[in-house]
Structure formats: structure tokens, C-alpha cells
């Protein structure tokens, strides 16, 4: 039976279900294509992906975190409002999915401000967390996150548990809640013909094996491990992939000591433990 517990004493793993609701901005900002066909792939995430995801989360009464670019808020306000209304956390994910390593510090500042404006204007949200578009960062990123009051980042990949963000050799007050490409749907499933060819389209049996075994390892190791799935409504929202996600979720729920949490809760839990440790 699943026992959702925050106490580190009985907890074996923190599990975060995260969804990057990139919609059209993935194609406009990351792939830099604006054809109707590419944009329609992004729209699939809003039209089909998010409703299916919300339904699955509601079925199992699970919390989730959605990282949403400002452009998605402006194109799909009702879908974003439905995510907020369901009680899920919303984090910052750029404005037009601009990779920060391709921006000047001033352009990056503008991107952060435009993203904050859209999240507040559409969803009434002042996000605590930031996940950079494409998991890319610049040397200016963490200074900007500190300046704008972010509590955690979800863009780095250095550990299987939360840790302090270092900015050019100095510890910051920002918590890293790391991800992993192995636990990201786009690495396995995303097909693209142009501007780059991505083979994608993996069968779910392979990805399910990777996701389940990575969870099993995290659970077995225990302690402060976290297991962060990164998914995209326009990718994971297909029927066969949603069935896989449901199987992975029910596998996780069969284990004891699992804490399903939003990302800001995992970051806060790290802060609490650091404080307690003095
Ligand atoms: Zn993204």
C-alpha cells in the first residue's frame, strides 16, 4: 500500500510528477519554426494532453507541478487556469521557451519578467520555482533567480537528491531539485523531421522499464532521494504513453514510504532538514 509520508524517518523517496506545458513555444522558441504544422503539434498539448493529465491526476488524487512558459499562458489561458484551479503548482519556464545560454543577461532578465507577468496575469501565480527552457542555463541565470526571489531551480542534473545551487563557485540560497534526461519523456519519444531529425517514438515498454527500474533503485536507496519525472503534455498526452504513465504511477503507489509532492514542497523539505542540521 502507498503511504504518503513527508517524515524523512519513514520516507524512502520523494516523487514529483512534473509537466512542462510548452505548447507552441517549444516550436517557436526552441526549434525556431513557425509553420502551422509545427504549431499544431504544440496545440495538441493544450487540446488533448493537459485534459488527460488532469484527469489521471484527479483519478489518483496526486499533486503535480507544471512549468509553463508565458506564451502558453497567453495562448491557452483557460487551460492554464484549469491547472491552477486543480491545485497544482505552477513554475516559471521562460516566456517563449528561450534557452538562456543563447540570451544576453538583459534579454534573460526580460524573459524572466515577461514569464512572471504572464503567470500572474493569467493564473494569479507568483512562482517559487524555475525550470529553464531546454534545461539550459547561463552565467547570469542564478543571479537573476535570486534577484527575483525564486526559492528553487529545477534545471540541473548533478544529483539524485536536492542540493544547494552554486553560482560560479559560491553557494546560493536557492535549492536545486534536479531532473534527469532518462526520466524525461522528450528524450525517448520526441520525433522531429526538421529543423533537426530526432528519431524518438520509442515503444513504451522500453521507457517503462527505465522509469520503473530507476524508481526501484531510488526507493531501495532511500533517505533523501527524489524521483522527478519530467513530461510534456504534447508528448506524454498520447493514449499509449498515458497508459504507461498510469502503470508507472500504480507501480510507485504499491511501495511504502513514498511521498508524492510538489516541487516546492521537496525544496522546502530540504531547507527544513538543513536548518535542523544546523
Ligand atoms: Zn520546456
Report what the structure shows.
The longest helix has 25 residues. With 278 residues, the chain is of the alpha/beta class. It is globular and about 50 Å long. It is 46% helix and 15% strand. The mean pLDDT is 95. Bound molecules: zinc ion. Zinc ion binds next to loops.
Would you kindly provide a brief summary of this structure?
46% of the residues lie in helices and 15% in strands. It has helices at 24-30, 36-60, 70-75, 77-85, 105-123, 141-147, 185-189, 204-221, 233-236, 239-253, 263-276, and strands at 13-20, 65-68, 89-92, 129-130, 152-153, 163-167, 170-176, 226-231, 258-260.
Structural class by SSE content: alpha/beta
Task: Report the span from N to C terminus.
Answer: 35 Å
- Residues in helices, as a percent range: 40-55%
Question: Could you state the order of secondary-structure elements as H and E?
Answer: EHHEHHEHEHEEEHHEHHEH
Offer a few descriptive terms.
278 residues; 4-stranded mixed beta sheet; 11 helices; 9 strands; globular; binds zinc ion
Protein topology:
Layout (H helix, E strand, L loop, with lengths): L12 E8 L3 H7 L5 H25 L4 E4 L1 H6 L1 H9 L3 E4 L12 H19 L5 E2 L10 H7 L4 E2 L9 E5 L2 E7 L8 H5 L14 H18 L4 E6 L1 H4 L2 H15 L4 E3 L2 H14 L2
Parallel strand pairs: 1-2, 1-8, 1-9, 2-3, 4-5, 5-7
Antiparallel strand pairs: 6-7
Helix pairs in contact: 1-2, 8-10
The chain binds zinc ion.
